[in-house]
Design a protein that fits this description.
Elements lengths: L2 H5 L19 H12 L4 E4 L1 H7 L8 E4 L3 H7 L4 E6 L4 E6 L2 E7 L1 E3 L11 E3 L3 H5 L10 E3 L3 E3 L4 H6 L2 E2 L5 H7 L2 H13 L2 E2 L1 H10 L8 H12 L4 H7 L1 H4 L23 H11 L4 H9 L4 H4 L1 E2 L5 E2 L3 H15 L4 H13 L8 H11 L1 H16 L7 H19 L12 H6 L7 H14 L7 H16 L1
Parallel strand pairs: 2-5, 10-11
Antiparallel strand pairs: 1-2, 1-8, 3-4, 4-5, 6-7, 8-9, 12-13
Helix pairs in contact: 7-9, 8-10, 8-11, 11-13, 13-14, 13-19, 14-17, 14-19, 16-17, 18-19, 18-20, 19-20
Length: 467
């Protein structure tokens, strides 16, 4: 963080205004602000794009708040396309040179009867009143080039101190829109900020309201939360909050693995694996559930050692059940399913084995599997397993196979079923059997992936079978 950004803090006046500071907004956003101001209205860039400037993060989401009512905004931008995206709550979307910018009238929210949206809103002429309805102080900052940054709630100070704090009473904010609980956890995870004590207490006090939030909204926030750099701290400290919508996580918490390969309990280990995985949603979801079935399958031998036969298969089924309940898309669920299914397998640095896995998983997902296995190995704190010793060598060999374009699937094979039929070597169901035989022969290095060589091999195989 550049010091000059926070030198502004000493210039805060009683009304919350800060001396002007140039924030680099897109020209399209500046056009909206200038047009509204020229028409006699107040207008500010609001929320995340202002916050992100002080965090030196790129922002791709731009919102403007204004004293103009929606119909007045439409009139100001009559020569541009304007969409009534949230007209009931005072929001229209102005499209300026292809950039969509939500423009929302200053408002005071009425009762939130569904823990999601206010039942009605009252328009206001006060930017202060508008900021009072916002979730966190760091998201309640306003900016325009003439006035500078407007900070009514100490958001800049909280950015400086790396704190997540609600605007006003935290319980009220979370009761109004309960998804704000997950947003607080997400911002803490992604930004590495601490959640202020009063806000934290309110999170635990109101957590049960998360049951009222739609699965789709939870999944979106949860995926972002998982991809934060401080995800381990959030998972371990707020496990009971996450357990409201994923109760399957709770049996993992404090569960002793009774195993020399594992120093940590199941959930502590899991949180470390998530943290050590690349910040990709399907990878971190797989990490979260990879050992989820261990409390269900544990068997303790006479020496007091815990064993977990079948935990990968059971964990895969549990993960699919949870992700379907949260309405994740089929592609994500499919990737998570395969990663968990194979996460405990020992992959030897041998081309035939690797190529067959590439055919099942795709090359990209196999590389993800190595990332998951490496994170798993780094998060045990105990003895190294046989699987762990081969990860690096197998990954390197996989990359060599990919770079060389070597054959690993029917799509890569230099011959098609029609070629075999035209050569009179097979017909009907026999074609599939012969194609599999040829692919296996190529993978095992018995024949070159060349059409003529494959035809000769198929003929020789056919003659052998006849004899």
């Amino acid at each position: 963080m550049k010091d000059k950004s926070f030198n502004l803090l000493c210039q805060v006046e009683r009304d919350g205004l800060i001396m002007p500071e140039l924030i680099n907004l897109p020209n399209e956003v500046l056009t909206i602000i200038k047009r509204l101001e020229s028409a006699g209205y107040e207008a500010y860039a609001a929320g995340g794009c202002v916050r992100d400037y002080f965090l030196q993060r790129n922002s791709d989401d731009f919102d403007v708040t204004t004293s103009a009512k929606p119909e007045e905004t439409r009139a100001v931008f009559k020569d541009y396309r304007v969409i009534e995206t949230g007209i009931k709550h005072g929001t229209v979307t102005a499209i300026i040179r292809g950039l969509k910018v939500e423009v929302t009238t200053y408002r005071i929210d009425g009762l939130y009867e569904d823990n999601r949206r206010p039942s009605k809103v009252t328009y206001s002429k006060s930017s202060y009143e508008d900021t009072c309805r916002r979730d966190f102080t760091i998201n309640a900052l306003l900016y325009n080039p003439k006035t500078g940054v407007v900070d009514y709630h100490g958001g800049l100070e909280d950015i400086k101190n790396k704190v997540i704090k609600c605007v006003g009473e935290p319980e009220n904010r979370f009761s109004e829109d309960t998804l704000r609980i997950l947003r607080a956890l997400r911002f803490s995870s992604v930004l590495g900020f601490q959640i202020e004590d009063k806000t934290k207490q309110a999170i635990f006090k109101t957590k049960i309201l998360l049951k009222k939030i739609s699965a789709e909204r939870i999944a979106t926030e949860f995926s972002k939360l998982l991809c934060g750099n401080s995800v381990r701290e959030i998972l371990t400290e707020y496990i009971t909050v996450l357990g409201v919508f994923i109760p399957e996580l709770l049996p993992m918490n404090g569960f002793n693995q009774l195993n020399p390969y594992h120093k940590y309990d199941v959930f502590d280990h899991t949180a470390r694996v998530v943290e050590n995985c690349p910040p990709v949603a399907h990878l971190r979801l797989a990490a979260l559930f990879h050992d989820s079935a261990k409390p269900l399958v544990q068997r303790v031998d006479k020496k007091g050692i815990g064993h977990y036969k079948g935990h990968a298969e059971a964990g895969m089924q549990l993960a699919v059940h949870v992700l379907n309940r949260l309405k994740y898309d089929k592609a994500t669920i499919g990737k998570v399913k395969l990663l968990i299914q194979y996460h405990d397998d020992t992959i030897l640095p041998e081309k035939p084995m690797i190529k067959r896995l590439m055919a099942i998983l795709t090359p990209e997902l196999l590389l993800d599997l190595y990332a998951l296995q490496r994170a798993d190995a780094a998060s045990k704190g105990g003895k190294k397993s046989r699987r762990d010793r081969f990860i690096g060598a197998s990954e390197s060999l996989t990359k060599e196979i990919i770079a060389a374009g070597e054959c690993y699937s029917f799509d890569c094979l230099a011959i098609k079923g029609g070629d075999l039929i035209n050569a009179g070597l097979c017909e009907g169901p026999e074609t599939s059997r012969l194609m599999k035989l040829l692919l296996d022969a190529v993978i095992d290095g018995k024949v070159e992936n060349n059409k003529n060589a494959l035809l000769d091999y198929a003929k020789a195989s056919d003659e052998k079978n006849e004899n």
